[in-house]
Amino acid sequence: FAADLGEYRHFMLKEIFEQPQSVAATLEGRLAADHVLPCLHGVSDALERLAQVDEVQIIACGTSYHAGLVGRYWIEANTDIPCQVEVASEYRYRRQPPRKNLLFVTISQSGETADTLAALEKIKENHGSLATLTICNVAESSLIRESDLALMTVAGPEIGVASTKAFTTQLVALQLLMVLLMQAKGADAGKIAKIVDDLRKLPALIEQALDLNATIEKLAEHFIEKHHALFLGRGELYPIAMEGALKLKEISYIHAEAYPAGELKHGPLALVDSEMPIVTVAPNTALLEKLKSNLEEVRSRGGVLYVFADREAHIQEADNLHVLEMPHVPELLAPIVYTLPLQLLSYHVAVQKGTDVDKPRNLAKSVTVE
Ligand code: G6P
């Protein structure tokens, strides 16, 4: 990964376009024909410890926290291990009841975020865990030093303050961790082989999602005069809607909020009018039909929808309903692939608004003080 801008205008755009390579690099050497190879560094009995895990607690901040939220959907859908996720700044100041055979996972691009480090110290000082594991992008970081186990993301250096390629490689690492847990717990071999097969397709699917760049650049014009935006998703796409809203806030300074689409009727519908664009991620998952009826609720109240949808989802363009076709993706990989258009949308809105894309006001790349 070259450290200069090359042909790109901003590091953020360069890093968005590096994702086919960074995802491939994070998978490199870790997949066998039908299973995931042991790819954890640290204590030598890592796999034995994974076999004993009864619970997972994930801790992170910012974009890394959103990766953790997706990880919970994946781990609980594919293993019998309960998984909790919390932002580090809350977890560190809260009493924690002792837990049995806990795998304590921190996720961090930098490995230096003060709250995440403090949460790790807290679990070590209090009742401890079966193992502490960090998913991290910087090999010589404090989190790596302080954890029993490390699962490295291979995103290369990330310069833009708004995290992009670090996030998608964290999601890849969470897929690897999920499969390692499945293997340690004796899950169905056919199911594991299918996931490994799908993971191999990921870099090419990301390339296809990037083909939407020019279309999204035009679409961004619809957002530059807006003051608010709503992002909707369901299931494991809800954290992706959260990440899309965070990106838009961070670099374009437009207030954006994410909602799980099923919660619309409990409040946000009151805000819907033609002045608030509503961005939705709609892969062809089990919840698609439910999501479609949520979209109708919005449209019948005059809301303007921008829907990133699987080309097999059969969502038709209509008045106030803009459909952007995405490649068909295996359900488990949808959160990763659907992140790309939301990154591009926030990037182009910010560029057209003329903000400092790589260094948004008041924000730091790595927050090493409380
Ligand atoms: C800062 C950055 C975010 C990042 C968060 C957590 O707020 O601006 O992009 O997601 O810290 O950082 P970490 O290095 O722990 O992933």
Automatic annotation (TrEMBL):
This is Glutamine--fructose-6-phosphate aminotransferase [isomerizing]. Homodimer. Catalyzes the first step in hexosamine metabolism, converting fructose-6P into glucosamine-6P using glutamine as a nitrogen source. One of its GO terms (cellular component) is cytosol. The gene is glmS. The active site is at K365. Its EC number is 2.6.1.16. It is found in: Cytoplasm. It comes from the Bacteria. Residues 46-187, 219-360 form the SIS domain. Keywords: Aminotransferase, Cytoplasm, Glutamine amidotransferase, Repeat, Transferase. It catalyses: D-fructose 6-phosphate + L-glutamine = D-glucosamine 6-phosphate + L-glutamate. GO terms for biological process: amino sugar biosynthetic process; carbohydrate metabolic process; fructose 6-phosphate metabolic process; protein N-linked glycosylation; UDP-N-acetylglucosamine metabolic process. GO terms for molecular function: carbohydrate derivative binding; glutamine-fructose-6-phosphate transaminase (isomerizing) activity.
